[in-house]
Amino acid sequence: MTTPRHCPGFEDIKNLKAFTCTCPTCGKEKEIFSDEFDRKHVCSGCGKEIDFTKCALEAGGGGQWRLVKEETYMEKENKEDREKKVTQIKKTDVRDMTTCDATAQMLDKARRDGVETAFDRAANMKACPIGADSACCKHCAMGPCRLNPKDPYGKVGVCGATIDTIMARNFARMVTSGAAAHTDHGMSMLDVFRQVVKGNIKDYTIKDPLKLEEVARSVGIETDGREVKDIATDLYKELERTYTQIEGEIPFARRVPAKTLETWRKHGVVPRGAMREIMELMHRTHMGVDQHYENITKQCSRTALADGWGGSMVATEISDILFGTPTPIRAEVNMGCLKEDEVNIIIHGHEPNLFESMLESVNDPSLVNTAKDAGAEGINLVGMCCSGAEMLCRQGIPHAGNFMSTEAILVTGAVDALGVDVQCIKQGLAKVAECYGTKLFTTNPRCHIEGAEHIEFEEHEPRKCTDKIVEMAIVRFKNRKAPVEIPKITNLGIHGFSHEYIDYMLGGTFRSSYRPLNENIINGRIRGVAGVVGCTNPRVKQDWVHVELVKELIKNDVLVVQTGCSQIALAKAGFYKPEAAHLAGSGLREVCEAVGMPPVLGVGSCVDNSRILIACAEMVRIGGLGDSIADLPVAGAAPEWMSEKAISIGQYFVASGVYTVFGVTFPIIEETRFHKLLFEGLEEMGFGKWGFTSDPYEMARMMIEHIDKKRRALGIDKTRERVLFDMASRRELEAA
């Protein structure tokens, strides 16, 4: 209702405001108008007079003002505590946050510049203890229901859900999200492959026809005497079943060792199609559907396996077919890869298409000349995070840093453009990019970021996107305003140990085989194999757990394979040089020196964990180490995990038969029935099992103990003298 302008006394009340004052005694609110301050006001709740000296004006919503209660002593204390925390963050030595010298240097600079990073936010944001233990259910509007982690069976949710049901549902939704991320990536790669085969995409071709034939044969497609296009057509149609099939078994189930597949079939966890498994698991975790933690876990395994042996494996294999299978290549990592006198462009994300097209753009003579006309010596393309790791292994493109260094890299002021697609991209990058004038571009329809310009990447015309990014980067270089400070640190190493190259490396062109690996495990020179993979997390000292764990493993003759951000952590620490073999135990060192390889092998991005699965299957096929993946003296770890993809990866390794240890935290309460199922029960059923510790030395001990347990079960716990191959042995090897 509006006040009429002819109302008597209008001039006196046209600026009248209403205030709400909270009674300092009983807390009841009373509305008071601005022309009533000179009167006495009595609280209708307690009957006492309201003392206006204990009220203060504070800005309210919509430009209004209100009277609020003066801060209590406790509120003042909380405010002081918050201010102390902020001060403490500023005083915290960045060396306590990261082992990466380049990142530490840039964090110091960020503080001087007044720029906040994820390290600061993590220090200022305490993780919810109830959520960390997965004792909270928010799957319906009767909640959220919070159970007590210290007394998990003391009460149930409003619907009656027990702690085991709640934890299993939460865990399942993490698996579902992680599996969806990888399988959607794989489906995108399959879409590109299909269009290349049909001739609708001209910028990409089949670069590795031998890999095409190998993958086709692995899923039962005839290749002898057939044209590449015909084989490729049959392959994409067959691999589409990985996603769309509603009954049967996914195509790559053919690669699974027979005994492992028998275990899957016995327990009903062989994936049908990824879309069906993901959809069903989401349905089961809806309120009032699946309410037994064992049954939920069964579908967790089925969904995760649809990731590892489905979506992830499709993504890796198709990427190799289109862009080439990695072979060892010498390349640099760390922030010293940036060049002050060149246009620096970083690509960050997970899909190789964008990066491959960007490689074409930065080498285009006309764009290079434009950069030089702007005063640059050239255009410098650098990778970051997982698409960076993939291009590091495939093309030898320098890599600037892993997940927790992504903001710090922008603090250099040297990055002229950052192009991102999907997964593991901090929204905070937009603010840091703005602070330093870096052009941030999103390129994938699945990922837009507020404050970033979007340039859609279309595989039919990829250069429209990548050329524009280069052009905008050149403009930014020409108009650089922020001072440039690049850490003068680079680390050289050898990357690109695909399953196929490991096979060749161990046996040579004519006798390529995993038999030498198996033989060296049997004779004890190699104790076992460990996959150390995954993210970096600001809740722990960046890279430290990765590095210390791997040091302990190789010192105890455990060969390490790595993917993703873990790979970059060890590369920065110098473990990707053959000379690093001196850090290994005598047995592993002898093998590394004989082959000329480092004791730590980098195989690519996080989706390339599927290469490790294939390697495990090949170790079983060669013989001598059991009949299933669960028999192998192998173990896995994600020491600094942070994403839901990591949980899906962990579950598909566990379901495949691998003991898998996570660090930082684990979203389950110990000594509950669900915890015992994951950490003990699954192994009793013929699968692998989970482990957890945040300590790298304890983690190494747990993994080595498991490897030794498997060696005892195989009867190879005592080392054996090396047996040299005679001619008969060589003929046997060639026939295998």
Please, how many helices? 27
From the N-terminal CA to the C-terminal CA, the straight-line distance is: 91 Å
Coarse morphology: globular
Strands in their spatial order, largest beta sheet: 16-15-14-17-18-19
Low-confidence runs of at least 5 consecutive residues: 1-14, 56-77, 720-726
- How many strand elements? 19
How much strand content do the residues show?
Answer: 5-15%
* Average of pLDDT: 89
- Briefly note the structural class of the backbone: alpha/beta
- CA-based gyration radius: 30 Å
Q: Please give the share of residues in helix.
A: 40-55%
How would a textbook summarize the main sheet?
A: 6 strands, parallel
Structure description:
- Helix content is 46%, strand content 11%.
- It is α/β, with parallel strands linked by helices.
- The strands form 6 sheets. Strands 16-15-14-17-18-19 form a 6-stranded parallel β-sheet, sandwiched between helices. A 5-stranded parallel β-sheet has the order 9-8-10-11-12, sandwiched between helices. It has a two-stranded antiparallel sheet with strand order 1-2.
- Strand 5 and strand 6 form a beta hairpin.
- The termini are far apart.
- Residues 1-14, 56-77 and 720-726 have low confidence and may be disordered.
